[in-house]
Amino acid sequence: MTAWVTGIVAAGVTLALLTGVTRGFDTASLPILAGIVALGALAIAVARRAGTGTVGPGRCDGCGGLISPNAPVCKHCGAATAP
């Protein structure tokens, strides 16, 4: 997903730069370009963050129930979980 977002942002910034070069930059277009770059950087940061740190539930060795990976004991059967 990060590659797609990066490609879309790069295409958008390139299009904005080409439009600015062909039509000429004025005092309003430079802040707009800066805003486009800032939003693009934010989109890339969010896409990178979304792909990391994904943690799924664990399984209890005793009963096979779904539990939190950080749970000290199973909420279903009370068995101690592996650290």
In summary, what is this structure?
It contains two helices and two strands; from the N terminus they run ααββ. The protein is mainly alpha-helical.
Explained architecture:
The mean pLDDT is 86. This protein has a two-stranded antiparallel ribbon with strand order 1-2. Helix 1 packs antiparallel against helix 2. The chain has two helices and two strands; from the N terminus they run H-H-E-E. The protein folds into two domains: 2-50; 56-83. The two termini are 33 Å apart. With 83 residues, it is mainly alpha-helical. The longest helix is centred in the N-terminal third of the chain and has 22 residues, at 2-23.
- Give the spatial strand order of the biggest sheet: 1-2
The SSE order reads HHEE
Strand content: under 5%
Give Rg in angstroms: 24 Å
What share of the residues lie within helices?
40-55%
Number of helices: 2
Averaged pLDDT: 86
| Termini separation | 33 Å
Unreliable spans: none
**Biggest sheet record:** 2 strands, antiparallel
Domains (count): 2
Broad shape: rod-shaped
Number of strands: 2
SS-based class: mainly alpha
Task: Give me some keywords for this one.
mainly alpha, 53% helix
Compile the SSE list and pairings.
Blueprint (H helix, E strand, L loop, with lengths): L1 H22 L5 H22 L7 E2 L6 E2 L16
Antiparallel strand pairs: 1-2
